UniProtKB/TrEMBL annotation, chain A:
Similarity-based family: Belongs to the binding-protein-dependent transport system permease family.
Protein name per Swiss-Prot or TrEMBL: L-arabinose transport system permease protein AraQ
Transmembrane segments: 15-37, 88-110, 122-144, 150-171, 204-221, 253-275
Subcellular localization, as worded in the UniProt entry: Cell membrane
Gene name of this polypeptide: araQ
PANTHER family (alphabetical): ABC TRANSPORTER PERMEASE PROTEIN MG189-RELATED-RELATED, ABC TRANSPORTER PERMEASE PROTEIN YESQ-RELATED
Record carries keyword NADP: no
Gene3D superfamilies: MetI-like
Domain ABC transmembrane type-1: 85-275
GO cellular component, one term: plasma membrane
Keywords recorded for this protein, A-Z: Cell membrane, Membrane, Transmembrane, Transmembrane helix, Transport
Membrane topology (UniProt): Multi-pass membrane protein
GO biological process: transmembrane transport
Record has Hydrolase as a keyword: no
UniProtKB/TrEMBL annotation, chain B:
Domain ABC transmembrane type-1 per the UniProt entry, residue ranges: 66-277
Transmembrane domains' residue ranges: 12-35, 72-93, 105-124, 151-173, 204-225, 256-278
Keyword hit for Signal: no
GO biological process: transmembrane transport
Encoding gene per record: lacF
GO cellular component: plasma membrane
UniProt keyword terms in alphabetical order: Cell membrane, Membrane, Transmembrane, Transmembrane helix, Transport
UniProt name for this protein: Lactose transport system permease protein LacF
Domain of life where this protein originates: Bacteria
């Protein structure tokens, strides 16, 4: 897709651009480097010497002198992190399956089928995206409490199966671009609407479905608000919530805190490098910023 | 055709049922709750407009939280927009290693929010954190970032700017969509780089800027979790954002009727601001080629 830019720069301009770009990189990358570096430091590296009250920065103190890998082990022993991880992965899996499948169903309905009230309902769907969650938070909480779901993972799972307005919007756009004769071929074969959907449309929509799956995974992995409202039992914490609780209870164990933060961030960074295209194209086509 | 209508409803039924049960009904219920005294445990009790009256006349923290939030929207959103557009313009230059720079700018925006809160509470530690130790290196004694006014507020703004990469990527995609022919024509007309940026690039980017501005403002008014985790609203309520105060009202004091009234006011404010932004929209947003 690269076209030769008509905006070619002179050599000097290129150097100037590099200088600006490198300088800008520092504040963006430094906290991440600092997080990982701290996670491997010993307490002597982190805290000032006896005769000092504070630390003055120098490059050599940036990196750990002798990497303390046991920080990770120690950090993970402060709480049942294996349970948090299990909970997070369970929630991510069910949310991805639920949100992607139900959103695809609804998107197909909006894109390819005709029914009275469709336009009005679609406008409502768009409008819900701008509705602050604080407006519905209390009644929704009351409903889940009446159902006896408070303190269980259900309030963090079931809503996904009602679809995500954003994904519905995105997938509808996608389904609309698929030529009608592909679906008609199915009708002639006598295939039902659901078979056309699941056997012709879904495979074609794979790239868009993957984008949605990725976004849902990120949203669920990062979600802090849901567990904050509904989870009270440490055995049901997610990693995100467990990390926040860890901050509260082990606030000054910086090496261990950074070890947990690193482990929590790592899957997302790996996912990013594996699926860079999906990330960047997905974000630029959808305009999603959490 | 009736068969098709039925099929249509069946296909959208997951969303439709969820919308009815988890959006529409709660939306209406929350209007009702805003006129009641409700603590989740016992049934709601009708109190008329007294929640609204208390909010407007007896609650200084309501006004303060509104001001804090407004200030955040007025600082973080415009600065984030300028930074995001500026960085996207830089990344659109034809220099080597652009992929590395793009990754570097974008990476912070995918760091999970709770992790970035942990990292920043460490970076901003007054005695041994990275920020103040760097400042000390150049002879400046930095403030207690998260526990002093006005720095706690600006620390949160700084944190939000750190993850500007998400919107930067959208601007970058917008830049790639500007047709090269426009630039070629401008070069023929003798326009220099600055003139091309001001007269072609930025006008072509205005729809994307507008979209981000609207979403950024809506999100700013719901800003909550970072303040909840990092500052708990302090010091002196200087980071008690509206949504944080609403949350404290509902879950700390179980004052759900009052919180519902606050939620409704928030909803109205967001609608008004969105409408206002759309009103300015014709004046500066450029469509078409």
């Amino acid at each position: 897709m690269k076209t030769k830019s008509p905006l070619s720069l002179t050599r000097r301009q290129k150097w100037a651009a590099h200088v600006v770009l490198v300088v800008l990189c520092i504040p963006f990358l430094m906290p991440i480097v600092w997080m990982v570096a701290t996670s491997l430091k010993s307490n002597e590296d982190i805290f000032p010497q006896e005769n000092q009250a504070a630390i003055t920065f120098n490059i050599s103190s940036m990196l750990p002198k002798d990497p303390q890998w046991q920080n990770y082990k120690a950090a993970l022993q402060t709480g049942p992190f294996h349970l948090y991880l299990r909970n997070s992965l369970l929630l991510c899996t069910l949310n991805v399956i639920g949100a992607v499948f139900s959103s695809a169903l609804a998107a197909y309905g909006f894109a390819r089928l005709r029914f009275p009230g469709k336009e009005g309902l679609f406008i409502l769907l768009i409008a819900t995206m701008a509705l602050p969650r604080h407006v519905t938070m209390i009644p929704v909480f009351t409903i889940f409490k009446m159902l006896g779901w408070y303190g269980t993972l259900l309030p963090l799972i079931v809503p996904a199966f009602f679809g995500n307005p954003f994904f519905i919007f995105l997938l509808r756009q996608f389904f609309q671009t698929i030529p009608a004769d592909l679906a008609e071929a199915g009708t002639i074969d006598g295939a039902g609407e659901f078979r056309i959907f699941s056997q012709i449309m879904l495979p074609l929509a794979k790239p868009a479905l993957i984008t949605c799956a990725l976004f849902q995974f990120l949203a669920t992995w990062n979600d802090f608000f849901g567990p904050l409202l509904y989870i009270n039992d440490p055995a049901k914490y997610t990693v995100a919530y467990g990390l926040q609780q860890f901050m509260g209870s082990h606030g000054t164990a910086w090496a261990q805190l950074m070890a947990v933060a690193t482990l929590f961030t790592l899957p997302i960074v790996i996912l990013f490098f594996c699926a860079q295209k999906v990330f960047i194209q997905g974000i630029s086509t959808t305009g999603a910023t959490r | 055709m009736r068969g098709q209508a039925l099929k249509g409803y069946l296909f959208i039924s997951p969303w439709l049922i969820g919308f009815a049960l988890l959006v529409a009904a709660p939306f209406i219920a929350s209007i009702y709750l805003s006129f009641t005294h409700y603590d989740i445990i016992s049934p709601a009790e009708w109190v008329g407009g007294s929640n609204y009256k208390r909010l407007f006349t007896e609650d200084p923290l309501f006004w303060k939280s509104l001001v804090v939030t407004l200030k955040y929207a007025l600082v973080a959103v415009p600065v984030g927009t300028v930074l995001g557009v500026g960085m996207a313009l830089l990344l659109n230059l034809d220099v080597r290693g652009i992929r590395f720079y793009r990754t570097a700018f974008y990476l912070p925006s995918i760091v999970p929010m709770v992790a970035s809160c942990a990292v920043f509470s460490w970076v901003l530690n007054p005695h041994i954190g990275l920020m103040n130790s760097i400042l000390r290196g150049i002879g400046v004694e930095g403030p207690a970032w998260l526990t002093s006014e006005p720095w706690a507020f600006y620390s949160l703004v700084m944190m939000s700017l750190w993850s500007v990469g998400g919107s930067m990527i959208i601007y970058l995609a917008g830049l790639k969509d500007v047709p090269a022919s426009l630039y070629e024509a401008a070069v023929v007309d003798g326009a220099n780089a600055w003139q091309r940026t001001v007269h072609i690039t930025l006008p072509m980017l205005t729809p994307v800027i507008f979209f981000n501005l609207v979403m950024g403002t809506i999100n700013a008014f719901q800003y909550f979790a970072q303040a909840y985790i990092m500052t708990e609203g302090g010091p002196e309520d200087s980071t008690t954002f509206y949504a944080l105060y609403l949350f404290q009202r509902s879950w700390r004091y179980l004052d759900m009727g009052y919180a519902s009234a606050m939620a409704w006011i928030l909803f109205v404010i967001i609608m008004l601001i969105t409408a206002l932004l759309f009103k300015t929209h014709k004046k500066w947003v450029h469509y078409g080629r």
